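Incident review: delayed structure delivery

Summary: a single-chain prediction request sat in the queue longer than the usual turnaround. Root cause was a stuck worker, restarted by the on-call engineer. No data loss occurred. The affected request and its eventual output are reproduced below so the record is complete for anyone auditing the incident later.

Affected input:
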Amino acid sequence: MKNIVLRVLSYILVAVVAACTTLLLCRVDGTGKLEQLQNLVTNRFIGEAEEKELEDAAAKAMVSALGDRWSHYQTKEEYLQYLEIMSNSYVGVGITIQVREDGTGCDVQQVTAGGPAEEAGVCTGDVITHVDGQSIAGMDTAEIGNLVRGEENTTVELTVLREGNAMTLKVTRRRLETEVATAQMLEDKIGLVTIANFDERCAEETIAAIEELCNQGATALVFDVRNNPGGYKREMVEVLDYLLPEGALFRTVDYRGREDVDTSDASCLDIPMAVVVNLHSYSAAEFFAAALDEYDAAVIVGEKTFGKGYFQNTYRLSDGSAVTLSVGKYFTPKGNSLAGVGLTPDVEHIVDEETAALIAAGLVTPEEDPQIIAAVNALKNGKNP
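Output delivered after worker restart:
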């Protein structure tokens, strides 16, 4: 009996020692779950682990878990691209291309006036076949663009075919500004102002476009903010201040509950106006139209807008990456939220998907654009509120 007891005790002792050993082996340093997990992967993972890739993946997953489509993480490279987009400028050569159907290269559809490609002799209608001596046969637009783009003040060699003759042109990349607002006079002295976004220079170019049309004798204006993704509040407010009389223009409430109200002075533009919107009019584009609507200053034409009612701040992190977080809510001058609701047009005019795609690509002239025509007719028929 004594031997049986000793044997059982020995088994228990071995089990306890094994358990303690296991606990010691599984102990993880770090005060929080994420720190513990990082230590585990760094110190115990048998394969190779790139710290930067791990951090980027973890950060992206953390922000994604918020379930907010407007909050997102950006790597250092993505953040630099974001800054370039928001500045309405880019480093490049100044050409618009389309890949040929036979895959032999790409056609130059447009050359930016005064840009480096034009200065180097690139012409509309040229066919690019090589970039820095590398054939682009079979490549898509993104792949070709990556070859053409590069750092500012560096050069790229483009081999082009023109009327069957091949030539190589050396082009110096430089920073180019993209056009934000354009002006065009339509029939019956109705001016069209197309606003691509509300990022840098929007107010400057939009007001300049308005004044250009007014100097040409415009008696009414149509603002096209379809497919406009929004942008900076300050740019939108400056345009509204130019257009509207004294009063509230825009309201925000941040995560602390603090309200901020932007106001307009007494000067305004007193002519009939219309704003054309669609499902892809977001954020500042929606609130621009809503403010004009609430002041009875413009008739809204087109399709119901998306309804983006939150605003975001972008925070740069120590390694050059950044996180964009929704930190507050937008409200119209009268205090209405458009979040999840959108703005309903006074004159609804919906186009089919094919037409919408052509409009977004800039392949429909205002004279052929059903929604622009509807806006012009609304102004001509006196439907301005």
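Verification: Residues 59 and 373 are 47 Å apart (CA to CA).
Action items: add queue-age alerting; document worker restart procedure.
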